[in-house]
Design a protein that fits this description.
This protein is an alpha/beta fold. The protein contains nine helices and ten strands. Helices cover 39% and strands 19% of the residues. This is Carboxylate--amine ligase.
Length: 331
């Protein structure tokens, strides 16, 4: 049985750039995969290939999902690693979107499957999206870091003020795929967004919007992102209102803001004294923004996690309390 299933094997694409995200360790708050889903919903691309899940997952950990179809028939959905293509007539190259799930097994074989599909469709560039938890507040701009395998891509990242965090340590499939692309001489870059660790279980539309904004600029896609950016503003306002109800949560977020301000001031002082190295994180408060961070030393983190997530869960199920007509019409 082949590990790769082609659906449009002979499809001709023009120097396609592949944009990828995988659910799992590199997808804090589902931010990266939600960005790919947004593009799939916007473009309605055609499915061109798929990596079979059988060899790569422990199904007691990544379980198939049962869905009800037409009120009675059960449909079984296995972990999916799907490649879809979208033509951009107004651009010089087309797009391939890859939405997958980080495997538990045979990472090298999985990587070879990914590279084989890239070679088959003559992918000219790979952009990998990731998100990680960090000790940052929801109230500040989303820190974005990135790295690339070629000087040309690195320069394009610098033009967007995206710099490497200089992280060294354990990595996920995003890091493995980027290294594999480098070895295969396929230009590749990764974009990493930092998500507040106390909102880890909440789909974070603000982080997703930030990733999409940078991808849009990096690839000159000319996407209209006004709606999702407005959703991001509303999301931040909602979280701020929820946090304000809990004095301990408010104090915790305020301390995070103060920590970042102190780090920013320190970086500014360092810049005054000497030129910063290229590996400095220009847009984020921490040098550890390439992997999921811990909750840090602040003691109220667990309380805030439970408090905010419980409030969000209650609002999703019951709607916000004391909601006036204007706020009802916002969505």
């Amino acid at each position: 049985m082949s590990l790769i299933q082609y659906y449009r094997e002979h499809l001709q694409l023009r120097n396609p750039v592949l944009i990828a995200a995988l659910a799992g360790w590199n997808d804090a708050a589902d931010s990266a995969t939600t960005a790919i889903k947004f593009l799939i919903d916007r473009w309605k691309p055609v499915k061109i290939a798929e990596i079979d899940s059988e060899d790569f997952y422990v199904f007691t950990e990544t379980r198939p999902i049962v869905r009800i179809v037409d009120g009675m028939q059960r449909s079984l959905i296995w972990p999916v690693n799907q490649f879809s293509a979208h033509g951009l007539p107004e651009q010089e190259r087309d797009i391939i979107l890859y939405l997958g799930v980080e495997p538990q097994l045979k990472w090298r074989t999985f990587t070879e499957c990914f590279l084989e599909i890239c070679r088959h469709f003559h992918v000219s560039e790979v952009i990998l999206l990731g998100a990680m938890l960090a000790d940052i507040p929801h109230s500040l701009a989303v820190p974005i870091t990135g790295s690339s395998s070629t000087p040309e891509l690195q320069e394009r990242l610098r033009e967007l003020d995206i710099h490497s965090s200089g992280y060294e340590g354990p990595t996920g499939m995003i890091g493995v795929l980027q290294d594999a692309c480098r070895r295969a001489s396929i230009p590749a870059a990764s974009l990493w967004a930092a998500a507040p660790h106390y909102l880890a279980a909440t789909p974070n539309i603000k982080v997703t919007a930030a990733l999409l904004t940078y991808v849009n600029s990096l690839l000159s896609l000319d996407l209209d992102l006004n709606e999702i950016q407005a959703d991001a503003v509303r999301f931040e306002e909602q979280i701020t209102a929820l946090v304000a109800r809990d004095p301990e949560a408010s104090a915790y977020v305020r301390r995070l803001e103060e920590q970042i301000q102190a780090l920013t001031d320190e970086e500014d002082e360092d810049e005054d004294e000497e030129e910063p190295p290229e590996t400095d994180t220009a847009r984020g408060p921490s040098s550890n923004l390439d992997h999921p961070a811990g909750t840090g030393p602040l003691p109220s983190a667990d309380v805030l996690i439970r408090s905010v997530e419980e409030l969000l869960r209650r609002e999703r199920e019951q709607g916000p309390p004391d909601t006036d007509d204007d706020s009802k019409n916002e969505g």
